[in-house]
Design brief:
The protein is an alpha/beta fold and 295 residues long. 28% of the residues lie in helices and 15% in strands. It binds magnesium ion (MG).
Length: 295
């Protein structure tokens, strides 16, 4: 809708609540955030769970004795869901870089990695009938076996969405466009959002848009980032979700010409939020919903 900017709470509202927890999502909804973004992976017993990295994150994970993990070698897909539940993800390790990035996040006890079904059940409560989920399926084509095959990730994730009849209140996004192809095969009516991150001199995470990238499925080589909207539209995408530093007003206009929705991530600084609003994006994915609400 022209003139409307939709707010997506990133991992709930990571700036203030522990990320990817049901409590964080519920509090985000209660703050007036209509859409929350969350990350999905699979356990060994194929339960879609809501957590960001393919391995447990040492800076946010304590074991049943309250000890922080010593490394990031524990793969989510090596745990049954029952075993994963023994970890507490309600706080950030003080002194870590991660804690320095989110100094206002609450530190809580007793919060488990939720299942996607837990979050879907929240959205089905009468109070939350108008909420949406922006479900990011985490997959990498770079490390064989680190994440499950795209078809498995897509199938089990869509199974949960359909079992709660949430198809009309969900967007599925991924940096790994192979996953989005699988989602298209299973549930073509669920809107697919193509995440993009351009290569740069000092990328803050793995880029997915570069020459001969394995992240972009059957899309033809991307010679010019300005071609991204056309390529995504060609693939049947509904949404383009670029890193905010990689998108200009011209790009947004080009995407709108192709009837794409543009959701920029992860926009936290007030200046960047203003810049994205001025660029005409449709959605802003942020760790700090209140900063967008106050713009
Ligand atoms: Mg995400």
């Amino acid at each position: 809708m022209p003139g409307i900017v939709r707010l997506h709470g990133h991992r709930g509202a990571r700036g203030i609540w522990p990320e990817n927890t049901v409590m964080g999502f519920q509090n985000a909804f209660d703050l007036g955030v209509q859409i929350v973004e969350l990350d999905v992976l699979l356990t060994k017993d194929n339960v879609p769970v809501v957590t960001h990295n393919p391995t447990l994150m040492p800076d946010t994970t304590r074991d049943e004795r309250g000890k922080w993990l010593s490394n990031d070698a524990l793969k989510i897909s090596d745990f049954t869901y029952q075993n994963l539940r023994r970890f507490d993800v309600g706080g950030i390790r003080s002194g870590s870089d991660y804690a320095a990035r989110y100094p206002e996040q609450a530190f809580l006890f007793g919060y488990k990695i939720p299942t996607l079904a837990d979050v879907a059940a929240l959205c089905c409560q009468p109070t939350y009938q108008n909420t949406w989920l922006n479900v990011e399926i985490k997959s990498t084509p770079l490390n064989e076996g680190l994440t499950p095959p795209p078809a498995e990730l897509a199938r089990h994730t869509i199974d949960v969405i359909q079992s709660f009849d949430l198809q009309s209140r969900v967007i599925v996004q991924s940096f790994d466009w192979r996953v989005l192809r699988e989602v298209e095969l299973i549930a073509p009516d669920i809107p697919r959002s193509h995440l993009t991150y351009l290569d740069s001199a000092a990328p803050v995470m793995q880029p997915n848009i570069y020459e001969n990238s394995p992240w972009i499925a059957d899309a033809v080589g991307i010679a010019d980032p300005a071609d991204l909207p056309a390529i995504i539209a060609d693939m049947g995408g509904s949404v383009w979700s670029p890193f905010h530093e990689n998108v200009t007003p011209t790009d947004v206009a080009a995407a709108h010409e192709l009837n794409l929705i543009v959701n920029a991530w992860t926009v936290n600084a007030p200046d960047d939020i203003e810049r994205m609003i001025d660029a005409g994006v449709d959605g802003i994915i942020t760790d700090y919903p209140a900063r967008v609400q106050r713009c």
